[in-house]
Amino acid sequence: MPELEIENWINRNCNIEAVKVKPDNVEAIAKWTGGELIGVGIDRFIKIQTVQISKRPGSRPLPTKATAGDWVLKDKQGFKVYRDGAFTKTFTQVVPATVKRDAVFDLVRQAMIEQDALTYHGDSMNSDEAANRITDKIVALF
């Protein structure tokens, strides 16, 4: 059984852990959630005890079916299942700081190489265009 890769996502300051259901990770998700695997092949799904989204007093968690392509998320209340479209419209993936730093480093290195080339060819007066392009790429990371 492959290791489950749980990702961090955010929605209006609410951090969650989430994983997209795929045919090769249903067993790991069932284990993570305490859910039950039902069916075989393409009809296989996970029956997960989830929290109610409605805030009715005394409401009990209902089992929810998660199939390939769905997202299973865990927040401070428990597990929930989202269809792919609703999930990607609602949540934004949290990119780890180390990944952002590596991307900025690569862009700074690219800018330095381009500046060296402009200087070598005697065209360093036009470096603003390159600087603006690299700056836009860095800003897009955040």
Describe this structure in words.
With 142 residues, the protein is α+β, with helices and mostly antiparallel strands. The chain has two domains: 7-93, no CATH class; 97-140. Helices cover 37% and strands 25% of the residues. It contains four helices and eight strands. The protein has helices spanning 26-33, 84-90, 97-120, 127-140, and strands at 7-11, 14-20, 36-38, 45-49, 63-66, 71-75, 78-82, 92-93. A five-stranded antiparallel beta sheet has the order 7-6-2-1-8. The chain has a three-stranded antiparallel beta sheet with strand order 3-4-5, with helices on one face. A hairpin with a 2-residue loop joins strand 1 (7-11) and strand 2. Helix 3 packs antiparallel against helix 4. The radius of gyration is 22 Å and the shape is elongated. The chain starts with 6 loop residues before the first strand and ends with a helix. The model has no long low-confidence stretch (mean pLDDT 83).
Please describe the structure with a list of short key phrases separated by commas or semicolons:
142 residues; three-stranded antiparallel β-sheet; 2 domains; single chain; 25% strand; alpha+beta; five-stranded antiparallel β-sheet; 8 strands
